[in-house]
Queue: 2 jobs
Job 1
Amino acid sequence: MTGWIRTPWWDGCWVLSGLPIGLMLAGLSAFMPSAIIVVVLLLLLQTGHLLAPIALAWSHAGFRQVMLCHRVKYLAVPLGILSATIGIAIFASPGYRLDITLSAMPRIRVPRDLADPFTAMFLVYAAWNVFHFGMQNFGILSIYRHKAGRYRGRAIDMAYCLAVIFAAAFITAVHRDLPGPSGAWLAVWFAIFIGMLWRELRAGFCLPRAFFMITTAVGLLLVFWQGLLGVAIYAVNHWLVAIGLAAHVHPSRRPILFSVLVILAGMTVFVLLFVRPGFVIRFVPWALGARVGLGFVHFLYDRYLWKLSGQSIGKTLIASGSVGSIY
């Protein structure tokens, strides 16, 4: 069984495009600085993907009714988190500023002062972000598993997705200090990868599930040698999934329009927060706090929308295969 979310072309663009986009960006990096590519990707997709679940939630009449009946959970808590992150950024690090030009990207170092609230906030965000990436990948495998008519294997899928994304995050953080994958590491990677594909074949082959597994497994291997390709496979694909799924279930039944509006809104927010004259990307405390707070709100709304139990659009997506009400 195939079990596409929408169509092979739609899934290939929004869900299964990590490897093709990664190869394309790796080719582009031979002709232009990687810094330009990264900034363009951030401008086009990163902030838009943060806004996608929030925009979907408040523009979906059925889900909006649920949120208005639980204002503390859906309004007070997210606004409180956003206010807190901005406050921490302003008062904990008033002199902090980082400018990035398009000639080179600075190396990101893991901060050491855990007692600093500003640093602690970023570490909490970073850890939650990695978990969020893994759980989104798990959600994609779960959707494909249900659409293929299979209802077992949830725990193995979750363990695989979380293990892969945490390993990729660790390697990305320290990869400049690593000479390359050891023989033992490659043996473990190969055993897990082949084991997941063998399990997929035995359970009844689902092409999009298998391709998504291949994408994440290859991404984990390539982060050792090609950082930009690894970013594309994990980050860009993650952003596209967030925008694409939100557009797919939007009640307007105009996924392209919703996607374009979310991307434009995200570009606007990114420019207002970080872009200064001369196209210098300037990170200052209040803007960093707002961005981290928006990220936390994004994590919450993603869970509100896509959890596969209770009143959620994710449950409707699996049940109906298309747009539908949560009722």
Job 2
Amino acid sequence: MRTSSFALSLLLVASTTLADGRVKRFRGVQHVEYNARTGQITWTDGGRSEPRNHDLIWQAVFTNGEFFAAGADAFTHDWGDIHDDDCVGEIEIGYATTVRTAADGTSPLALDLGLYIADNGFDSSGRGVMRQLRLRGLPARAIDAPGETASAFIVTIVEFDPLRFVGPDLDPGPGSVDPAGRFGLCADDEGLSDFAYSFRFRHVPGGSTGPLLAWPADPNSLLCLGPGASESFDVFALDPNHPPADPNAFIIPDLDARYRETVSLDTPTTYGQLYMRFDGWDPAHDYNCGFSECQVADIVPAGGDCLVDLSDLSTLLANFGLSSGATRSLGDIDPPIGHVCGSFGGDGDIDLSDLALMLSLFGTDCN
């Protein structure tokens, strides 16, 4: 299912609006691609560019033409469930702004996007930072835009180190948060990982900027889509009396900014999620023998030989007991997966957990 055509068809549909002055309307939407490595922005002629990988993993994209203007002193924080061990290679976000493009065509807009694992927005929020991306020079409103009409943009972020969503399901079981079952597979359930994401728009001079709001997902969908089992999102704010030591640094909820409020909705007929989409990534081309758990223990030679044998075990045993600074090449193989797709985890030491994993895979052919 493609995002753009369906989302665009919903832009002008009447909807229930939260009685909050920070919720504002926009008309129309434009699509751009943002290269996270180079900062280059490519306009895609009003339509979403086809993703390099067509594997849709998670989305909350059904917008009703409204956005939440949080201000530069605050950021919004939302959460959901994603299938454990999913790899994300493209991220799509949406925002709207009344900030004008400068006469020279430049834009002052910048966004700090944070992604967190082991965070469900409720009582088990570990704030484990997976990735923080700073997007600079994002498109702003056209110079000749009428009045205070906000311009909306959907941005596909490409060319970043892919992310692997590995984490616990922080909720006790099926239906625990959504007893009415309104969100089907989107509800917290066994086998899913809780994650969160935050938006902070920096340098917002003389205007309103904020993420697009999305509708609840179809409860009959076969995918696990947003907005999960909750119709709310959190707002955190910088404390003017205790600003971060480095004003240019990324901020983290609870650490650098304080919880201010939860924006909640009481009806399933309106929005409750911030616009977000994840597309997959295919790691096959990055490996000589195709990624598998077996390959985690294939540490010798440096590039691997697709066999877990005495050379691998001997290397681990030679470094057994190393308490810090250990690497995979020395035998630090547990936990087996890192948060960057294709990376092998490890925890900095070589102990019984590493030896047990090696022995469980000993003698296997990774092909």
